[in-house]
Write a structure and sequence with these properties.
Pfam family, one: Collar
Helix content: under 10%
Order of helices and strands: EEEHEEEEEEEE
Largest sheet: 4 strands, mixed
Structural class: mainly beta
Protein name: Microcystin-dependent protein
Shape: rod-shaped
Number of helices: 1
Oligomer: single chain
Organism: Mucilaginibacter lappiensis
Domain Phage tail collar: 7-63
Distance between the termini: 22 Å
Strand order of the largest sheet: 8-7-6-9
Number of strands: 11
């Protein structure tokens, strides 16, 4: 770009910022040396507004346009949100159950196929109990602790597929007119 607008953000495939550009890594710049860029950015991305202002920080972030589109929540320019990893809480999970259905009837089939747990019986006293009854005979739910909880409460990755590139911002260029 020969003459970008001052404050233009661009993608760059290198691992450095070319002359007249800076990395979009949230660094603080002196207002005194960058008055034109400060007049565009202000303290939207940080800084004290007296001596310093910050460049946008796009490290680990996906840029999005500010405002509110149809059916979307409003976003303010400079707003940062989201998490790279999250740990789901029980309160965030949809209502569901892991009930273990059973029957209080005496078991009448040796196989669990199409059956449910039932009151065990050993009609021949030979150690071959019958523990199941037809699945249509469900009339109780076993205790919650009959199914052990599983999981380790560790955060999981929350990132969309990505390719890391360099975001750069123009420190020099044409001052953009508003109209």
């Amino acid at each position: 770009m020969d003459n970008p607008f001052l404050g233009t953000i661009s993608l760059f495939a290198g691992n450095f910022a070319p002359r007249g550009w800076a990395l979009c890594n949230g660094q603080l710049l002196a207002i005194a040396q960058n008055q034109a860029l400060f007049s565009i950015l202000g303290t939207t991305y940080g800084g004290d507004g007296i001596r310093t202002f910050a460049l946008p920080n796009l490290q680990g972030r996906s840029p999005m346009h500010w405002g509110q589109g149809p059916g979307l929540t409003p976003r303010v320019i400079g707003e940062a949100a989201g998490e790279e990893s999250v740990t789901l809480l029980i309160s965030q999970m949809p209502t569901h159950n892991h009930a273990l259905n059973a029957s209080t009837n005496t078991g009448n089939q040796p196989s669990p196929t199409n059956g449910v747990l039932a009151v065990s019986t050993d009609p021949d006293a030979g150690g071959n109990p019958i523990n199941f009854t037809a699945g249509t005979n469900v009339n109780t739910i076993m205790a919650n602790n009959s199914i052990a909880p599983i999981g380790q409460n560790l955060p999981h990755d929350n990132m969309q597929p990505y390719l890391a590139v360099t975001f750069i911002i123009a420190l020099e260029g044409i001052f953009p007119s508003r109209n």
